[in-house]
Structure formats: C-alpha cells, structure tokens
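@channel sequence for tomorrow's demo:
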Amino acid sequence: MTATANSIFTTADIEGLADLIAFAKEELSLDDLHPNMAARYRDIAAGLTSEGIERTPKAIAEFVALAVEEAGHLDQVAPWVFVRYLDTADDILKEF
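structure tokens (generated this afternoon):
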C-alpha cells in the first residue's frame, strides 16, 4: 500500500504488530517476554493503531520511539536510536 497525504495507520492484527515492535527492541517475541513487558508492547501497538498516526515511516517511528523509550519529546531520543525506529517503521509498513 502506498501512503497518501491523509492515510492513517491501522491494523486489526495488534498481536502481530506488538510482536514486531517487541522483537525490534528486545530481540524476543511476546511469548518470550515477561507478561508485563508483553502487555506493554501490546499497549504500544494498540496506541499506534488508535491514535490516528499518519501512515509514514517518520510518524510511526516517532510514536514508537516515544512510547518505547518513555520519552516526552523526540529530542530525548538519541538520533542513532531513532534511526533504528525508522527501520522498525519500515518493517511495520511492509508487514501491515
């Protein structure tokens, strides 16, 4: 799917999205994480699909980076760390 100016990211596969985000950060699947950590990634995935985030790598990367790194502003995420979230956002868009 190609992004349009008004395209919003959404998916019904919250579990799959959460698993992808968890693996990108932890290098473990949801099944391999402590239940509280797995729930955290499910919450992040649910937020990504419900917050009306634009379907672009940058917008998705910003949302995921702020949520995973528990940062209040993107300036609090190191640039080299943010690049990893851009890669994750690309993977998300390819998968979902």
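heads up for whoever presents: The CA atoms of residues 57 and 89 lie 5 Å apart.
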